[in-house]
Amino acid sequence: MKDRIRRLLSKDYPKWVKYSLISGLCSAALMFLSIATLLVYCLIAGPPSLVTEQNTIYYSADGTVIEEDFGNKRRYWVDLDEISPDIVQATILSEDRNFYDHMGFDLKRITAAALKNIRNLDKIEGASTITQQYARNLYLSHEKTWSRKIKEALYAYRLELFYDKDEILEGYLNTIYYGHGAYGVEAASRYYFSKHADELTLAESAMLAGVPKGPSYYSPFINEQNAEDRQALILSQLETFDYIDKKTAELAANEALSYASQEDFSIPDIAPYFQDVVAQHATRLLGIDREELMKGGYQIHTTLQTDTQGMLEQTMERSLKTNPDIQASAVVTDPHSGAIVAMVGGRDYEDSPYNRATQAKRMVGSTIKPFLYYTALEKGFTATTQLVSKPTDFEFADGEVYAPSNYNGYYADEPITMAQALALSDNIYAVKTNMFLGSDKLVETLHDFGISGKIPSVPSLALGTASISLHDMTDAYTRLASAESPKEAHTITKITDRHGHVLFEHEPEEANTTKLDPDRAFVVSHMMTGMFDSSLNGYMSVTGASIANELTHTYAGKSGTTDTDSWMIGFSPDLVTGVWTGYDDGREMTKIQDHQFAKEIWAGFMEKAHAEKEYKTFKPTDNVIGVYIDPETGMRASPYCPNQRLMYFEKGKEPDQYCGDHYDGKSEKKDKEKEENKRGSWKDLLDWLF
Fold it and tell me: Which sequence positions are flagged as catalytic?
């Protein structure tokens, strides 16, 4: 080759011929070197990422969309076979008819466009291919500079080098801008026609395919005439290239299009407090931040039951309508799975997104007592263990005195059973039990039931002086209700990427992986049904008396009251619900009605939620035995006992003595003695006053 070039140059050609020959050879060599360099660069750089921003979608338990994270941009990703062939073909013919024949650049089209622009002394014709536009959408801005053009060319060539044509076309159709914040053909289909991209008709496809050319000019929502003219042009192109015949083109051109309204496209704002919790859980599970989650195109399948959520919100608002200032929160879980099926974190999310169910930690009051008595059962107590309920001063080694009191200063002034102490929420019985066990034992139990954080190991812990969130307390009650196979509280069942690949899937905890004792848990749960049972009335009515007549199913529950907070948490065999009410500024609740709201919300919701459920009772575990007890004496009930209540015991711990107080007139005698004692008390008081 060198000899041939040397011979050509040695001949007696004119100088300009020699110079032209040398220049041509140098140009060819330079072009070859440039192409080789470009190829090597592209090979070293590797395939460019096709990841782009996409909407993250949240689904309820039944698959209904409850929310879409898109900020001011709507994006969805669909596979090429999930897009109508009509809009695929219309897009190719209108944007890049030689798409399947070039390597990212249409040289013939570029030349024709350049000549046309030169003739008109203006840039009126573009020549960007689909690949170039896709590269621009993925990696670049839309500024008109040589730097951006060169980068666009490099990205386009790399795309063609490493991806097949269908992958590029699919990516382009999922990222091109159709106006009104809609990116991609699926978002555009939903926005303009309220349907999916694979449901578009020929007429709709031709209309949409024309919009990306100039969204502010060809959008039918902005200029319908311009949009129809471009639709007609695209239909004629489809006819020219034999995709459709003349008659089909005419029918499509004359088809009256039915556009979607903005209301049709909007997503209802369902359970916003719950959604925030889901987003927090998802970022933790995926190891990303909130912004990455919003734009990542994830499909998040949640545990939310929209009908249950609706019942909860309606019940809460109806119950609280007489007091616009008080706040409330509620959590509902499925004890069989641990799934959180409904959540309200406040009365108005737009007014305050602060989630009082998860973020607020308030003193839990007497809702802590079921865990205290669960602990006591381990140490030999039973449902009939008796302690005296009377004003008591507890003096410690350092001389400090603790003097708890009962609600409104009411006391039995005699021994009462644990079952009655729980039903009446007797504070003296609770503190005595805690002092006997040691406060550290209750702390350990709370940890066993999933409550974390620092909990004060003090005598008053028995009365709920610890500050815990409603979410955590409801979770602890859920574990109590399902102690045989406790499940972890969760809001997410599955997360997939935009292509459906599973990134996370919830796996339920295996049975009996915790320290919980199902026998003791059942005994406590059954004792908790006593708050609605008038047979346990004593020196005062059971704490659930005000709502007992509203209840038609079997429920276990416990209320809690402090100066600033009101709680009600309870469950059926199928549902656990926790409710808190109070004021954000921590002011005292001085009105009786303020303390009643939590019970009213709980009862109203539970009855609604169970309206169509079959009646169920709590199923005893294998190692417990049920015995009818006289609530007053704590002994086995005889046929003469006027009040009898079924109570459960771990086998071998049930009482063996029968009550004899109500046999052969003994009950009347005892009642008479009680009446005389009361009269004596009044006489003493009168003597003291006068």
Answer: 95, 366
